[in-house]
């Protein structure tokens, strides 16, 4: 085979590889958020409050202290108007090799793992770092923001030590303290 033909085959292979990689990328968060805003996806009123049961709080505290890698859980509960109530958190189906200090990938969905009533996902950031859905000072979605945009759930959350940062379908972030007796939630901009 001559050099010209080999080069054309290599270029074609690279082009096919890049096309395959682009096809695997999730839709940009702005496109998915726009679809939600237009009503293209079925949804109720935007979630304005996240409530965690005592059992869910205990589970989060135990998991956060137990692992140096990220953990992931399925938030099980219900939506009541603009409030999401998390009754319990079930462990997501994660292979140990798919959990590192900076990344966690489930093996299957919560529903496929048998967890009915899932209303969101939660994962941890060991050390409480990078707890945001948008890069600081921008509206550019982080990988966590992009991941949430591709999910069907009304909320997503990041466990960050003594608090949880969470996001709703309007792509608004909020914080929930886990140490105070009274829960303070606000939709003021999260420090980014």
CATH architecture: 3-Layer(aba) Sandwich
Strand content: 25-35%
Average per-residue pLDDT, rounded, comes to: 78
N-C termini distance:
56 Å
User: Percent of residues in helical segments?
Assistant: 25-40%
The CATH homologous superfamily name equals Cytidine Deaminase, domain 2
Total helices: the number is: 4
Coarse morphology = globular
The number of strands is: 9
Please characterize this protein's 3D structure:
This protein is α+β, with helices and mostly antiparallel strands. It has a single domain (38-177), classed as Cytidine Deaminase, domain 2, CATH 3.40.140.10. 27% of the residues lie in helices and 26% in strands. It has helices at 3-24, 29-38, 54-66, 143-149, and strands at 49-52, 72-80, 83-91, 99-100, 103-104, 118-124, 155-159, 163-168, 173-177. α2 runs parallel beside α4. It is globular.
Fill in the keyword field for this structure:
192 residues, two-stranded antiparallel ribbon, alpha+beta, disordered C terminus, 27% helix, single chain, 7-stranded mixed beta sheet, 4 helices, Cytidine Deaminase, domain 2
């Amino acid at each position: 085979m001559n050099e010209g033909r080999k080069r054309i085959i290599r270029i074609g292979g690279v082009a096919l590889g890049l096309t395959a990689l682009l096809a695997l990328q999730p839709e940009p968060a702005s496109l998915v958020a726009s679809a939600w805003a237009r009503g293209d996806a079925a949804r109720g009123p935007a979630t304005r409050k996240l409530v965690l049961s005592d059992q869910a709080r205990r589970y989060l505290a135990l998991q956060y202290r137990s692992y140096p890698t990220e953990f992931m859980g399925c938030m099980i509960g219900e939506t009541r108007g603009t409030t999401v109530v998390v009754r319990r958190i079930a462990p997501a189906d994660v292979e140990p090799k798919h959990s590192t200090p900076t990344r966690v990938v489930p093996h299957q969905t919560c529903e496929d793992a048998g967890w009915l009533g899932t209303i969101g996902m939660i994962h941890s950031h060991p050390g409480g770092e990078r707890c945001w859905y948008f890069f600081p000072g921008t509206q550019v979605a982080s990988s966590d923001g992009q991941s949430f945009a591709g999910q069907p759930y009304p909320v997503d959350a990041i466990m960050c030590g003594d608090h949880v940062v969470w996001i709703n379908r309007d792509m608004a972030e909020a914080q929930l303290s886990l140490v105070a007796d009274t829960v303070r939630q606000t939709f003021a901009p999260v420090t980014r």
